[in-house]
Specification:
Layout (H helix, E strand, L loop, with lengths): L1 E8 L4 H20 L3 E8 L11 E9 L3 H9 L2 H4 L3 E9 L15
Length: 109
Amino acid sequence: MHFIIHAIDHPDSLTGRLAHRADHRKRIEALLNEGRLVTAGPLPNKVEADPNISGFSGSLIIADFPNEASARAWADTDPYVLNGIYAEIRVYPYLQTFSAAPTTTQVAK
């Protein structure tokens, strides 16, 4: 089943995000390579050409997990959690009803 992982950053988390981004992305890429990722990305604080200027309020991940406990366990071991970037993690079951074609636009890497 799909689950939404909604992570909320601590204020002024940008420096920590940048320091641990590579490890965080490796875990997301593993979900992608396993065919379990629906979508993932950061939530910018403002709409601007370079979101690294004003930072991020959190992240959103939608992926397939066997159950809510496994989604929560996966989220709780994210480098952003372990290194104090995320203040809170929320996990919700998600029923994908519609799906759009993927876009090629990528802002934050």
